Structures are given as structure tokens and as C-alpha cells.
Amino acid sequence: MRYERKYRIEGVSLDVILQTIKLHPAGLNKIFPDRQINNIYFDTPALTTYKENVMGLAFRDKYRVRWYGADPLVVRKPKLEIKHRRNNVGSKSIFNVDSFSFDNLKPISVQVNNLSGTFAHLQPVLQNSYTRAYYGTRDKKFRITIDWNLAYASLRSCRQFRKHQQFEPNVNILEVKYEQDIEHEADRISQFFPFRSTKNSKYVTGVEICL
């Protein structure tokens, strides 16, 4: 189980945010090359997962298929990730799934439902993509990510992501991630970020933009 402190940063350039990272007294180092993340979020026809998130239910799950690559329509080595939220901490279950084509999402939908552990009928609702940078502390206790170029498109009405995608201009998402047992140390990292911690869900944002 781990904590995630999120910062939705609007109207501040990415260069300024990266400079804040570089000047952090904890000595944050790049731990992985930048890469584009692509997701399909699955939900019930009634958008149960979305509604549970908006209501802030303490116990909830989120279902997404994730892959990496500069072309959001080229699917390589996808994985189903089920994010489990339990009060203020979360964990993740990860499953390998078959590659798929956007011309036919039925096979991946069947796999997601078979692996989901829920009796609810899940269907593809939203696709999104963004670029992520990865940083960490020298002691490897804390990982910091910065996301930008956030784009969303509904999968309920179309399969043409590039044609129908909608962007969040001038928005960057910073997250501080760490294990549950070092919560008492987290302030030594977060206190040096000149940003306000906020609740943020890319899935909720995408639904509200696109649907």
C-alpha cells in the first residue's frame, strides 16, 4: 500500500516545474527516461467507477489497460491495471493482456471483465495519453512523476483518438509516491514544492471533458 500526493498545476510552465525538481534539497535524480503513457479506462454503462471517485468513496477500484509508446494507437505489451483505493492509501494489481486493435475492442473487453474480479459489466469508456518524467530520491524512498501533454477522447462514440482528442492546455500533474510506512517522512519532500496539493483523477477529468 502506498500514498500518492498529487499536485494539479495550472498556468506554470513545464520548465519552471522541472527547475523546481532540479533544485529540490533532497537531490531528486532522473530514474527513467521520459515516455508517453497510453490508457483505456473501463467502466460500467452507468459510469459507476467515475461516480464512486467523484463521491470520494473510501473503498473503490479503477480499471485501465496501459501501454507505452509515442503512437497512442499502436498497442504493444498492454497490461490491465486495477487500482485499489482504500481510504487514503492505494495499491495496484497488474495482469498481462493480449494486444488488440481499435477496430475491435471486444476481445480486450472480454479479457478485462474476466480478470476484473467484479460481476459488473465493464466496457471501454475513455482513452487518454500523456508524457511522463520520472524522478526519485537517492534513498529510493520517494518517487516523483510529472505528466504533461494530457489528451483525452471518448471511446463511447468513436475510435478515432487523433481526430476527436481534447487537450488540457497549460496543465501539468506532479505526484509524490511513497510506501505507507514512511508517511511521517513525506513532509521533508513535499514542503519544498511551491504548489498546493490537490485531488486529481485523470479519468474523472477525461470523463468531464469528453462525456
Please give a structural write-up.
The chain has a single domain, classed as Alpha-Beta Barrel (mRNA Triphosphatase Cet1, Chain A), CATH 3.20.100. 21% of the residues lie in helices and 42% in strands. It contains 6 helices and 9 strands. It has helices at 14-22, 48-55, 106-115, 161-164, 187-190, 202-210; strands at residues 2-10, 29-43, 59-68, 79-86, 89-96, 123-136, 142-154, 166-167, 171-179. Strands 1, 2, 3, 4, 5, 6, 7, 8 and 9 form a 9-stranded antiparallel sheet that branches. A hairpin with a 5-residue loop joins strand 6 and strand 7. It is globular.
The main sheet comes to:
9 strands, antiparallel
CATH class: Alpha Beta
Number of strands: 9
DSSP helix count? Answer: 6
The span between the termini is: 32 Å
Q: What's the CATH topology name?
A: mRNA Triphosphatase Cet1, Chain A
Which structural class matches the secondary elements? alpha+beta
CATH architecture: Alpha-Beta Barrel
**CATH homologous superfamily identity:** VTC, catalytic tunnel domain
Low-pLDDT parts are none
Please estimate the helix content: 10-25%
Give the SSE string: EHEHEEEHEEHEEHH
Rg (CA only): 17 Å
Number of domains: 1
Average pLDDT: 95
How much β-strand is present in the residues? 35-45%
Which descriptor suits the 3D outline?
globular
